[in-house]
Structure formats: structure tokens, C-alpha cells
Amino acid sequence: MRQPDIIAFCNQKGGVGKTTCALNIAVGLTLLKKKVLVIDFDPQAHLTYSLGLDAHQLKSTIYDVMRGTVSVDEAAMDIKGMKVLPANLDLSRLETEMIALSKKEFALKSRLADLSVFHYVIIDCPPASGLLTVNALVACQDVYIPLQMEFLALKGMSRLLNLIAEVKKKYNKNGPAYRVIPTRYDARKRLNNAIMDKVRERFGDRVFKSVIRENIAVAEAPSFGQSIFEYAPKSHGAEDYLALCREMLRKKPSA
Ligand SMILES: Nc1ncnc2c1ncn2[C@@H]1O[C@H](COP(=O)(O)OP(=O)(O)OP(=O)(O)O)[C@@H](O)[C@H]1O
Ligand SMILES: [Mg+2]
Q1: Cα 171 to the chain's mean position, in Å?
Q2: Nearest CA to ligand 1 atom 10
Q3: Is residue 177, in this structure, part of any structural domain at all?
Q4: Considering the domain boundaries, does residue 254 fall inside one?
Q5: Residues lining ligand 1, CB < 6 A?
Q6: CATH code of residue 113
Q7: Using the 8-state DSSP alphabet, how is residue 235 labeled?
Q8: Which domain holds residue 52?
Q9: CA-based nearest residue to 195, from 163, 154, 138, 137
Q10: For residue 186, what is the DSSP state?
């Protein structure tokens, strides 16, 4: 049976747009009639809050799924036409609790083993390279790296690419392949353009042609518990995210 495309949104650098991309892409794919499971895999629970949920009032979370006390099916909530596995601060305990387990890197992968009802599983990772991120990298086929076109952006990239290469060698021979999402792009900024050229030169067709522009509505939407498609459907943000989702559905670059 066909298994879903599992995509981890990853960058150990904080505040680069992982959660914003994960959420709006998940909703965008749902609008394009795909069945999507979204996993908040960050103890900060920003994705959970951005969906308008109260992290203190959740019946079960991804933490419970990882502990094996509930199944994905039991814990997943129906939100905006998608299934969502929310998070709360409990997740921050998981890394310590798992440390002694022999197959600790494979815990998430084993929980996601049979999810053929979904076309996509989207995982929002924390800004760190610890065991949670390693679990996501082991479970996924693709890593999407949101990148702001700023001076230090490329510096963090090599660390992340090393981590991906290490995971590939040790735990996930068939993947993960990475793609770069240029985000918060402002064509008026000369530095943004210069760095965009460098990024495209270095990473070629792994960089999405669709670019997410800096857009105030994208930043405002989460405080209303809305995606960009509900909050401002005619905005640049909605246009950019939809274009990116369409590009995702086309052919992947060769690994
Ligand atoms: N295209 C955009 N235009 C304007 N603001 C944006 C855009 N994308 C993201 N932001 C804002 O940038 C900030 C960081 O985004 P986000 O929370 O998605 O990053 P993150 O990588 O998930 O952060 P963390 O590492 O803390 O998990 C947020 O305030 C968000 O609203
Ligand atoms: Mg985040």
C-alpha cells in the first residue's frame, strides 16, 4: 500500500519560519485535496497555538503517542480538514526519558509505520539538533529547510547538512533528501537578492522556485488561530504558499 510522503521542517536556527511554513503548507495541500497529518514536534507548541488550540487543555498529544500510550489515530484531532497531533511542554521531557532506549532514534518512525490514509505527513521540528530532530530526520523522506536570505543563513546550513548526512549514513539509508524554501524574502533588499543568488548557485534545483515573501498577514494570522488562506486569502502570503504547494506536487528534483 502507498505510504505518505513524510516531510520534516527543520533548521536548528530559531525563528526562520519552520512553523509558519509547516502550517500554511499543510493547509495549502489540504486545499489541493490532499490528506494531511500535521505533527507539532516542538515543545514550544507554536504550531498548536497557531491553530487556535490551548496547549494546556489537550486530551492527548504527540508526547502520548511517542510514549506508546495512545495511537496516532486516537490522538489526532480534526482541524481545518487535516489531522493534527498537537504538542505541549510534556514533549520537552521526552528526550531525557528516551535516552536509555536502544532504538531511540526510530521511535517516531515506528509510530508512523502504517499511515496509508494520508498523502502527506508534515513534521514541525524544534530549533535544535537533539533527539527530537534526529527522530524526525529518521522518520522522513524529505527535509524542507526554510531559509531567510540573510548573512548568517548559509553558515547554519552546513551544520544542518552535516546532521542530515550523518542520519542518512547511520539510520535512514534511503533518505532524507533536502529542499530549501526561501522565506521572508524582500526584493527591495539588496542583500536578500545577493544571498538568493548564492543559495540558488550552491543548492541548484533543491531550492524551490516559489519564494515566500515577507508579508505582514503571514505574521498576523496565527494570533487568530488561522492559516494565511483563511486570514488573508488574497494576500501575497496566500499566493506564495499556494504556488509552493503546487510546486511540491510536481516532480521532485533528483536526489
Ligand atoms: N513570510 C513571512 N512574512 C512575515 N513574517 C513571517 C513570515 N514567515 C514567518 N514570519 C514570522 O517570523 C517569526 C518566526 O517564524 P516561525 O515561528 O515560523 O519560525 P520557526 O523557525 O518555527 O521558529 P522556532 O525556531 O522558534 O520554532 C514569526 O513571528 C512569524 O510570524
Ligand atoms: Mg517553530
Answers
A1: 20
A2: 219
A3: yes
A4: no
A5: 14-20, 42, 44, 46, 127, 183-184, 212, 214-215, 218-219, 237
A6: 3.40.50.300
A7: S
A8: 5-249
A9: 154
A10: -
Residue 145 lies in a domain: yes
* Peptide bond between residue 176 and the one before it cis (omega within 30 degrees of 0): yes
- Whether residue 178 is contained in a domain is answered as yes
Q: Residue 210 corresponds to which cell in the numbers above?
A: 516559489
From 9, 11, 13, 19, mutation site for ligand 1 pocket: most ligand atoms within 8 A of C-beta? 19
CA of 1 to the centre of ligand 2 (A): 32
Distance CA 219, CA 227 (A): 10
Could you tell me the three cell numbers for 226? 488561522
Q: How far apart are alpha carbons 231 and 144 in whole angstroms?
A: 24
Q: How many domains does the chain have?
A: 1
Per-residue pLDDT tens listing for the chain (255 residues): 688 999 999 999 999 999 999 999 999 999 999 999 999 999 999 999 999 999 889 999 999 999 999 999 999 999 999 999 999 999 999 989 988 888 999 999 999 998 989 999 999 999 999 999 999 999 999 999 999 998 887 888 889 999 999 999 999 888 799 999 999 999 888 888 899 999 999 999 999 999 999 999 999 999 999 999 999 999 999 999 999 999 999 977 665
